[in-house]
Every structure is written in C-alpha cells, then in structure tokens.
Amino acid sequence: MGNHEEIIYIRLDDGEEEEEKNKIMNRRRREEFKQFDIILAANDENNNNSSISDHHFASSSISDHKTNKYSSQTSKRIMKEWKILEESLPDSIYVRAYEERIDLLRAVIIGAAGTPYHDGLFFFDIQFPSRYPNVAPKVYHHSFGFPLSPLMHKNGTLCLSLLKKNWFGKKNERWNPSESTVLQVLVSIQALVINADPYDIPDDLGYVSTSSAPRRIVSLALNQDVFVSNCMIMLKVLARPPSHFEEFVAQHFRERAETILIASKAYIDGRIEVGGHPKGNICYYAMWTKHFQDSMEIIYSKLLLAFIKNGSSLEEYVGDNMDDHLSKDQAQLPDHPVPCWLALCLIFGPPLVLFLIIVLGIISPY
C-alpha cells in the first residue's frame, strides 16, 4: 500500500494523470455500456412493464402516457430530446429511454473527482409531462432518504430553477419551452448540485454568505456529512441496482473500489479534506468530528465487504489480515447521518451556531 498517498492525490485532485485514466475508462465503459440507449418493450406477457417497474413515475397514469396519447408535437419533441442525449451526453452521464413509455427516462451521474460526491452513482428518474415542453420535466432523485444538498432533498425532490417557470433566478436560468432541454437539466444538476461545495447556495435561493473563516469550517463539516450520505447511497445502489443499470453499477464499483476505500481511510485519519488532497502528514483544516469518524469506520467496513462481494480484486489492498480493515463496532448506522447542529447552521447561519457550540457550550457538536 505504499503508493496510496499518490493514488489519493491523483484521484481526488483530478490531475492530468487521473483525467487521462478516466478517458480510457470511460471509453472502455461506453464500448460495453452505451451512454444512451432505448429499452425495448417486453414481449413476454409475464414480464409486462418489467422494464419500468422500479421507475419512480412508472405508476403515474400509465394509460395517459402511452405513445398514442401524446400530441404529435410533444412526441416529436421527445424524439428530438432523445437525439440530443444520444449525441451530446458528457462522459459522466448515462441515460436510458423506454420504447413502451416514451414519457420516461432514467439517468445516472457519476460523482466527479475533487468533490464529496466522488465515485458515487446518482440516479434520476425523469418524466415528460403530457404538455411538454410547455411544462418542465419532472425529476426524482433516488436518495434512499439521505440528504446530499440543500438543492437535492432526501425525499428525492430537486430545487432547481431550470425545472420551474416561475421561480428564483434570472429569466435565462428558468425553464424555457423553446430552448431548455433534458440534457441542460442533467448538466445543471452535475454543475450546480453535485459539485465541490454543495452548500455554497446561490443568494437567490435564500442563503446569506458569511465571513470566510466560519464558512470554511462549516463547509468542511458539511462536506463530511455529504460524503457519509454518498457512501450510504453506494451501499444501497450496490445492494439493489436500478433496472437496466445492473452491470454498469457492478463494473463501476469493481473499478473504483480501492480508490473509494483509500480515500475513506484518509478521511477517517484526518490526513486529507473530504474531496480534497493531502497537505503534508496532517491536514490542519480537516475538521473531522467524532460523529464523522465513528460513522465512517463502520461504513468503511460495510463498503469493503460489499466491494468484495461485488467481485473487486482487493487482495493486495487488504493484505493478510482482514480484521485490520473491519470496524470493531458494527453498530447500526442512523438512517440520517447529518447531525442536528449542522442543520442549524443552514437555518440560523454558521457564526451564531458556532458561537453557541464553542463559546457557550450549550449545543453538543456530536
């Protein structure tokens, strides 16, 4: 494991070496798994609607969403959307459409290096309303109940101005029937939500900026909790991958397993910031808490066992003593790992809450 520090730096800081490695990996993945594809209708009567059974919008007025129920204009626009997705998807986004339900799409976005979402898989179910494109598409995130951002809620809803006609933000940031597309929605989610600082909320969404020092501390703490949620979602996706992405999920985590484990261990030890890169032997800005450390030690063990079960080659990484990599405390993790004091930071502002925690000591940080 002597080259682990180098692996951490290359992977998390998104350097040139890692960028080239990602290109090769994505090229190989596209050869095995198309970035955009259409799932054909099931012919077997016993498998009717099996291809969409786990889609969030699958049961919503099916009779109203058959191909022949759409206006010619809406159907043509959906076909145009398919073509745009087929030709223009970024390397880290994959989409499936459905022949039997042209109103539905499923997309996955791979978490980018240099963010607390790194190496995660984030699935989104999309529905074209019958009045599309005059009405923005509906989007649901498979969060499994774990909060990832103020803009991506644990109930699966997204707070994105592009999905609204009358919402916060400038006019060109809201849904425009003549110009906006599903591709634009997916790229916006990737850029504005699944990014390096998920709690850097735009002013027009109600977050008031604070001084740089406490904001930095709170940002680091919140990124830790985002990574905890990211790992919990990894475990959920591995245990039950969304339909038509089963092999994609398995292959992704076979390729990323060691990097995820190395990074997790470095975060637990406080050697690097979540989503950041090493700064000497100790990262003095890594404000990891007892809550984060305890949670990640358990999650690390669960990830290791799940990756081995998935077929990852981790013999060299694990070495001769598997027990060294397993947490002695196998207690059940809480369903929602974000501490209440961090939530209070978002509501009342970091300076006030940090003052209560550090100076008055009336709120426990754990």
UniProtKB/TrEMBL annotation:
- Would the keyword Membrane turn up in this protein's UniProt record? yes
What GO annotations for molecular function exist for this entry? Answer: ubiquitin conjugating enzyme activity
**Coiled coil location:** none
**Annotated Pfam families:** UQ_con
Say yes or no: keyword Metal-binding present.
no
Tell me where in this chain the UBC core domain is found: 73-240
InterPro entries on file: UBC, UBQ-conjugating_enzyme/RWD
List where the protein spans the membrane: 341-363
| Keywords, sorted A to Z | Membrane, Transferase, Transmembrane, Transmembrane helix, Ubl conjugation pathway
Kindly provide the name given to this protein in its UniProt entry: Ubiquitin-conjugating enzyme
Q: Which organism is it from?
A: Macleaya cordata
